[in-house]
Amino acid sequence: MSEKYAYLGPRGTFTEAALLEMPQSIGAELIPAGSVHQALEAVRLGSVTGALVPIENSVEGSVPTTLDELSHGQALEIVAEVAIPVSFGLLVRPGTQMSDIKRVATHPHAHAQCLEWLHANLPEVHVLPAMSTAAAAAELDDDAPYQAAICSTAAAAHYNLEILADNIGDNEAAWTRFILVRTPGHAIPSTGSDKTTVSLFMHEDHPGALMEILTEFAVRGINLTRIESRPTKKQLGDYFFSVDFEGHIDEERVGEAMKGLHRICADVKFLGSYPRHDGKFSPVKSAVKDSAFVEADEWLSGIRKRR
Amino acid sequence: MSEKYAYLGPRGTFTEAALLEMPQSIGAELIPAGSVHQALEAVRLGSVTGALVPIENSVEGSVPTTLDELSHGQALEIVAEVAIPVSFGLLVRPGTQMSDIKRVATHPHAHAQCLEWLHANLPEVHVLPAMSTAAAAAELDDDAPYQAAICSTAAAAHYNLEILADNIGDNEAAWTRFILVRTPGHAIPSTGSDKTTVSLFMHEDHPGALMEILTEFAVRGINLTRIESRPTKKQLGDYFFSVDFEGHIDEERVGEAMKGLHRICADVKFLGSYPRHDGKFSPVKSAVKDSAFVEADEWLSGIRKRR
Amino acid sequence: MSEKYAYLGPRGTFTEAALLEMPQSIGAELIPAGSVHQALEAVRLGSVTGALVPIENSVEGSVPTTLDELSHGQALEIVAEVAIPVSFGLLVRPGTQMSDIKRVATHPHAHAQCLEWLHANLPEVHVLPAMSTAAAAAELDDDAPYQAAICSTAAAAHYNLEILADNIGDNEAAWTRFILVRTPGHAIPSTGSDKTTVSLFMHEDHPGALMEILTEFAVRGINLTRIESRPTKKQLGDYFFSVDFEGHIDEERVGEAMKGLHRICADVKFLGSYPRHDGKFSPVKSAVKDSAFVEADEWLSGIRKRR
Amino acid sequence: MSEKYAYLGPRGTFTEAALLEMPQSIGAELIPAGSVHQALEAVRLGSVTGALVPIENSVEGSVPTTLDELSHGQALEIVAEVAIPVSFGLLVRPGTQMSDIKRVATHPHAHAQCLEWLHANLPEVHVLPAMSTAAAAAELDDDAPYQAAICSTAAAAHYNLEILADNIGDNEAAWTRFILVRTPGHAIPSTGSDKTTVSLFMHEDHPGALMEILTEFAVRGINLTRIESRPTKKQLGDYFFSVDFEGHIDEERVGEAMKGLHRICADVKFLGSYPRHDGKFSPVKSAVKDSAFVEADEWLSGIRKRR
Q: Which of A110, A280, D35, D221 has its CA 20 to 30 A from that of D143?
C-alpha cells in the first residue's frame, strides 16, 4: 500500500508544488488538508505518513500557525525541509480580459506581495480575502463574486483557469520554506549538514533569559539560523522562542546544549533534526567536534577514578 | 481647528476602541483608514496629526505589517502606546437566530481565537475571511453571503447589528497593544517609565550578530521587552530584528547603547521613545543612571586633560 | 607507624603553625622542608604522606613558586586548605636591647609588611634578606651578622629567642592561606562547601581566551574565588591561568565545566577539590544542581531513543 | 641642566641595562634607587624626571611591588616601556676558581632561574639571598660571606669582578619588561601601536565582576594583553585587577571602555597609555574605529534634535 502525505491545500497551493519536489512524494498519495492544524492532526492520528506545511517565507516571515501547532499538543518531529521560489500569477476563467476584472481574490499575504503590480495594472480593483491563494482559484466559478485569483500559476491546470499575467509579485526573489512533519521515530541520522528546531519556553519575568539561551548555544559553538519570540497566548509579554540552529540532536555539542537549555528553561520542545534544504555546511570548530567531547569525557573519568 | 487621528478601520475595530481610550482622541476627529499602510501614509503626508495602529496581540504575536511599514519609508516616531482587552462577540442583523447561521465572516486572526466556541456552538458553520473584523460587520447587509460576523461588540452600534453572543474568544486574557505614530518632533521627554522601539538591520552572514546586539544592551543595563527577527524581504535567511526595550532615547545609557548598535549594525531605525502603557518601572542600577554617566565623563575628561 | 607530613620549614615558620592547626597533624611526624619544591618532591617520592605549603597571602598575593610547582611535574592533589592570621614579632637573643640592634634579618615579604613599624622604631636599622622568616631566627646565633629577626613569635621557643616586640606588622588583618597536598587518590567526597583549583594553559595568541574560560564557568553557575595569569616561562606574553572556584569535581556542574575547559584549553591541570577553610557556602542555583543535570540527561536520552 | 632618571639599583642591575637602551637616557643623569618605592617617590617629589622599574618577567610573572606602588599613592603615569633579554652570569673576584666557591649570593628570583645550572655545576653550593642581583655583586668584597654572585654580566665592570660563567639561566628565552614612569602631563599622543595599563578595584563580594569587566572591553573591541588579580591588602579574598590592554586613552573606544569601567568598579586607576615596546599592531575593527564613534555621535545627535 502506498504512503500518504498531507499538505496544506487545496490543490494548487505552493505547498503542493513543494511537496512534488521532494523524493518522499514519489509514488505516494498526496492529500490536501484544509488547514495546518488539520494536516498535523492527520499525522498525529496516523491517517497519513507525514505532512508538509509552510514554516517561513521571505516576505512575511514565519508562519505563526505552524510554529504554534508544533509547539503545543502531541509531539511531532520535522524530518525534512524544502524551499521553493514563490511566483504569483493572475488567474482567470478562460476569456476574461483585464478590463473585466473588478474584484480579485487572494490570501492577504499574497495580496501584500503584489501591491505594486496591482497599483500599476489594476488600480481600481477591489481585493477580497481568501483562505488561501489556491482557494481563491478553486472557488473562481461563475457564481464567484470576483473575476480573478492571485495564486501559483500551477493552480491554473487544476482549476481550468488561464494565466492572464505571470510573475506579478513585487519581489522576484521571494521564497517559501516548508517542513515535512512525522511522528517521532522516523528521523534520519546526522548528515553533516543538518538543522535542529526547538521551542524554548521561558520562566516568567526573566529579563536576561535570551542572553542565557544564546550563551548555551555559543559556548558549544552552535550557530543560530532563525530566532523568533512568540507569545504563549497566556498574557501580553509572556513569550517563548522558536529557534533553528545548525547541527543534529545526535551530535555531542547539540546534546549538551539541549541539556543546558532544559535546565534553564521552563520547557524545551524538540521539533526535529533534519538535513538542510540548501546543503550548506558551516565547519565545526575542533573544540566542539564529537571527538573533543569524547576525549573530554575520558579525561574527566580518569581524574575522577584516580581520586 | 481640531486635530485629526487616523486609525485602522473601518469604524468599530478594536483599534478605534483603543483610540477612544487615549487622551489624544478627546475633541479630535477620528478617521478610519483602510490599512496600516494608508494610516501611516496619512501621517507622512501631513493629512492627520497621528495614527493608531496595532503592533502586537497576545495570541497572534506582532503585527508584521506594522513592523515593516515603520521600518521602511520616511521616518515616523511612536509617541504613545495603549493596550486593551480583546473580547469577541457574534453579531447578526436584528432577528437572526443561531439556527439561521450557515456562514460567519471574520478576520482570520479572530477566527483563530474563537475556534473552540465555534466548534461547540456552530459546529457546521462555514467561515469566510474578511479584511478585518469590523469589515465583516460593516458588510453584513441583506446581500452578504453570510449571516453573522465575529468582531468587537462595539461594532454593533455602528452597523445596527445585534449581539447574539458575547465573550466567545477561547482566551479570556487576550489583549492587543496599539501604538500612536507621528512625524518626528512630537515626542515627550522621559517620564521614568518609558519604552523605546528600534529596528536593527544586520550585516549579512554574521552568526554572532544577535549575541553582539544583546551585549550592547546588557553592558548598559538595559532590559529588552520584545525581540523578533523579521525577514528583510530580500532573501530567505536575511533578517532584521525588531526590538522594544526599557528606557528613553534622552537617557545616557540608551544613547550609548544606540550608538553602539549604530556602530555594529548595517542600519538602525529609531522608531520612538514613549511612556509605557502599564506604567511599570524597572529600577535602573546605579552604575547606569544618568548621573553615573555624567560623572564618568568628567572623570575621563580630567584624565585626558592632565596629560 | 605514624604518618609523616612535610611543611615549608625550617621549624617555627607560619606554615608549621598552620599545620599544627590541622587535624592531620595529630600524632603525625612533622618534617620541615627546605623549599616548596623539596616539600612537594617528598610527596611525589612517597617519603611523606603529604605536604603543607603556602599558596596565597593577603598582602603579597599568590605564592608563585607553589602555583608553578603544582602546575608542572607529576600530578599532585590539594586535599585540604587552612588559613591563619600572620602576626610578626621582633625576636632577639636573650638580653639584647632595642638600642643594640643595628641589623635585622627577615624574608623580603615580611620586610615589606613591617615597613611602618621599622621606620618608627628602628629608623636606622639595616635589613638583611633571609630565605625565610624562620631561617632568620634559626641562624640568629653569636656569629650572625645581625642582632634581631622578624618572624612568627612561635619561633622564639624553637630557637631560644626572646620576643622584644609583638604585632609589628603594618596590617593587623594579614592572613596566609596554605594547602595540604597529596598524591592522587586521597581526596574526600563533596562536603557541600568545597573549592576546586585548576591551572588552565591557553593556546597561543588567543585574545578572547579569558572570556571563553569565564563563560564556561558562568554557563554552569560556578563562582570563581581567585584567578591569576602566570607566565608559562616560555616567552613574554605566554600565560596560563591559575583559578580557584566553588564546587567539587564530583558535582555535575563542575564536571561539565571541566570538560568544556578541557576542550578549549591547550591543557587543564586539575589540582584538587577540597573543603573550604572557612566553611562558606554559596547556594547552588536549582538549574545547576546535580538533580537538574540528571533530569536533563534522562530527558535527552528519551528524545534520542524515541527517534 | 641635564635630565635625571632614577632606576632600580644598585648600579649593574638589569634595570640599568634596560634604561641604557632607551633614548631618554641619552645625556641624562642616571640615578640608582634602593627600591621601587624609592624610585617612584623620587618622581613624585620631583627630584627626578622619571624612573624605570621592572613590571614583569617571563619566568616569575608580574612584579607585585611595582603594581602595588603604582596603584596606591599619588598618581603617576607610564610613558614608555622596554623589554630586554635576561641573561645571568656567575661573577667572582679576580682569581677565584670554581672550586673556591662554597657560597653564592643572588636575588631569590634569579636563584629560581638558575637552579639547573647550579645543580649541575655547583651541586654543593649554599645560596644566600640578596636584596637584588646587583647588590650581591656590589657587596662581593673580601669580607663577604660568599665567593660568587649571580647577576647581569654588565655588573662585572661596575664592581671589578670577573665573569666565571655566562648564560647560566635555565631558560634562554627569559625576558624582563620595564616601565618608564613620570608625573601626569608628559605622555605622548597615540602612535597606533599603544598599550594602556589600569588598576581596577572591585566592589566587595561580586562574583560576576570579572566577567563584567571583560565585557566592557569586549564590547568595544579591545584586546587584553595581561590581567592579574592582586589582593587589596585589606582581607583575604579582596582583590583588584591589574590589566594591560591594546589602545590609547585618547582613542574613542578606549575612552568609552574606561568610562564603563569607572561606572561599574569601586575605583579605576589609570596608569598610562604608551607605545608598545615591540611595535606590534592589532588591526582595529571598523566598528570601533574613532571614525565610527564620531559618526555614531552625529547620528544620535540628529535623532535627539529632530524630536
A: D35
Is the pLDDT reported for residue D26 higher than 70?
A: yes
Are D231 and C57 inside 8 Å of each other by CB? yes
- Residues B236, A177: C-beta atoms closer than 8 Å: yes
Of C55, C85, C36, C9, nearest to C271 (Cα)? Answer: C55
Can you name the residues that pair with D235 across neighbouring β-strands?
Answer: none
- The pLDDT of residue A226: 84
pLDDT at D229 (0 to 100)? 81
Residue C40 pLDDT: 96
Output the pLDDT for position D154: 87
Does the beta carbon of A130 lie under 8 angstroms from any beta carbon of chain B? yes
Model confidence over C193-238: pLDDT tens digits?
A: 999 999 999 887 666 788 899 999 999 999 988 888 887 766 555 7
Over residues B261-287, the pLDDT tens digits come to 999 999 999 999 999 999 888 899 999
Q: One fold for both C1-85+172-186 and C187-307?
A: no
- Architecture of the domain spanning B88-165: 3-Layer(aba) Sandwich (3.40)
C177 touches chain D (CB under 8 A): yes
Note which residues in 84-113 of chain B have CB less than 8 A from chain A: 108, 112
Predicted structure pTM score: 0.88
- Among partner residues C171, C231, C235, which is closest to D233 by beta-carbon distance? C171
The ipTM, to two decimals, is: 0.88
Alpha helices in chain C (DSSP H): 14-20, 36-45, 64-71, 108-113, 115-121, 133-138, 155-159, 209-218, 252-264, 290-306
Q: Which chains touch D (3 or more CB pairs under 8 A)?
A: B, C
**Domain D187-307 fold:** Alpha-Beta Plaits (3.30.70)
With a cut of 60, say whether residue B260 has pLDDT above it.
Answer: yes
C-alpha–C-alpha distance, residues D43 and C109, integer Å: 24
As a whole number of angstroms, the distance between CA A26 and CA A45 comes to 23
- What are the extents of the domains in chain D? 1-86+171-186, 88-165, 187-307
A246 touches chain C (CB under 8 A): no
Query: What is the end-to-end Cα distance of chain B in Å, rounded?
Result: 60
* Chain D residue nearest residue C113, CA to CA: D233
Tell me the average pLDDT across B234-246.
Answer: 79
pLDDT value of position C71: 82
CATH code reported for the domain at C1-85+172-186: 3.40.190.10
Residues A62-87: what's their mean pLDDT? 89
Grid cell listed for A179: 517542513
Residue D35 sits at the chain C interface (C-beta within 8 Å): no
Distances, alpha carbon B167 to alpha carbons B85, B91, B153, B164, D210, in Å = 11, 12, 9, 11, 54
Decide if pLDDT at A1 tops 70: no
Tell me which architecture the domain covering D1-86+171-186 has in CATH: 3-Layer(aba) Sandwich (3.40)
Model confidence band, residue D57 (pLDDT cutoffs 50, 70, 90): confident
Whole-number Å distance between alpha carbons of B125 and B140: 16
CATH number of A88-166: 3.40.190.10, 1.10.600.10, 1.20.970.10, 3.40.50.620? Answer: 3.40.190.10
Q: With an 8 Å Cβ cutoff, is A218 touching chain B?
A: yes
Compute the nearest-CA separation of B297 from chain A (Å): 28
Interchain pair A234, B173: CB under 8 A: yes
State mean pLDDT over C273-299: 93
Measured between beta carbons, the chain C residues lying within 8 angstroms of D72 are none
Please tell me the predicted confidence (pLDDT) of residue C205.
65
Residue C208: other Cβ atoms inside 10 A: 12
Contact A263 C287 (CB under 8 A): yes
Number of other CB atoms surrounding residue B3 within 10 Å: 14
CA distance C296 to chain A (A): 5
For residue A54, which of A117, A92, A110 has the smallest C-alpha distance? A110
